Amino acid sequence: MDRLDDMMAFIKVVDTKSFTTAAERLNLSKSVVSRRIAELENRLGARLLNRTTRKLSLTEVGQAYYERCTRIIADLEEAEQAVADLHAAPRGRLRVNAPVSFGLLHLAKAVAEFLERYPSIEIEMDLNDRYVDLIDEGYDLAVRVGRLRDSSLIAKRLAPNRQVVCASPAYLEKHGTPQTPDELSNHNCLIYTNIPTAEQWQFRINDAMRSVRVSGSLRTNNGDLLREAAIAGAGIIVLPTFLCGEALSKGQLQCLLLDYYTAESNVFAVYPQNRHLSPKVRVFVDFLAERFGPRPYWDCALLSLRPFKTEASPL
């Protein structure tokens, strides 16, 4: 503790450029602060401060020691804050951004359960499908689906985002069932336009990813609309299982091309890189990761048909 006290005295003297002011802020006498600096210099065997009647300045050795001391004290304060945060009750308003479909289908019920568990937290959730700047727009975190852009944000994987090709029993009875990805060219494929490669569906064929060009009579930027159109028999879709998992379980849609793995990604929680992660963000992210996990409930129907050899890629 003596060494830490000496460091704190030294830092205060440098920051205030005055023994008198440093002593006042440390609630010590000026003589005690002067003695600590002198003992510190004696122990180090080096002069840290240039003293004149008018000002104080750092020596070259003093500058290097000051920089190291400030880092040590900052790390100590961070460690103490981290422990305090672990024991602090999560509270306050949590601003969350999420995609519309995922929010409506899976976050609404999750949030209700979370708020019951943590009554001191309030959630303000904005649902939209645009890419938001968390820091500029004041969000604590966002739920994002797909591959992440490079950024300084911290990302925690909540669940795999598996894709599936499917159609209604009525459509398949009328138009037949494709046996290979190439046969999709003979079918009406419903196109999701909110991605750059809307008409290029990805499949793993002979251990390599390959694009298959598709076309159809319906194009839209909304996955829920595509799912409902497919259930009504309009054509074949490729969608994330979080969008169509329930329809698969109910038999409203049937999986196709199960021998060909489609492109996969993940569902993430992302949040700014801060020195101290607030308890409200930490518990919400951990709650979602526990609720969804590597085998999310919306994948039940698919996993019963096709065991996955590997999990989705980390990014």
Automatic annotation (TrEMBL):
Which SUPFAM superfamilies does the protein's record reference? Answer: Periplasmic binding protein-like II, Winged helix' DNA-binding domain
Magnesium: is it a keyword of this entry? no
Q: Which InterPro entries match?
A: LysR-type_TF_proteobact-type, LysR_HTH_N, LysR_subst-bd, WH-like_DNA-bd_sf, WH_DNA-bd_sf
Q: Does the keyword section mention Transcription? A: yes
Q: Which UniProt keywords apply?
A: DNA-binding, Transcription, Transcription regulation
Q: Which domain of life is it from?
A: Bacteria
Q: Where is the HTH lysR-type domain?
A: 1-59
Family stated for the protein in its record: Belongs to the LysR transcriptional regulatory family.
UniProt-recorded name of the protein: LysR family transcriptional regulator
Q: Which organism is it from?
A: Azospirillum isscasi
